[in-house]
Specification:
Blueprint lengths: L2 H12 L11 H15 L1 H8 L5 H15 L4
Helix pairs in contact: 1-3, 2-3, 2-4
Length: 73
């Protein structure tokens, strides 16, 4: 898995963003989350790959988590 995708997933885990996702659905969420970032927010992945993590990038990742995690409740 590319480092930028690892960073995006680890960010979710260490910041408690996966708390509402049932444990047995985390892998499914991960695939969907990374696909969404790849399709709609490639700039975020590129920034993470370049070593950039700022408030704007964090906000995008949090927003994507909020959008997707609602369906796992």
């Amino acid at each position: 898995m590319p480092v930028e995708k690892q960073i995006a997933i680890i960010y979710c885990g260490v910041n408690g963003l996966l708390a509402s996702v049932p444990v047995d659905k985390v892998k499914e969420f991960e695939v969907e989350y990374l696909d969404r970032l790849e399709m709609k927010h490639k700039d975020v992945l590129n920034a993470l790959k370049a070593g950039t993590l700022n408030e704007g990038i964090e906000n995008v990742m949090r927003d994507v988590v909020k959008e997707l995690s609602a369906k796992y409740k």
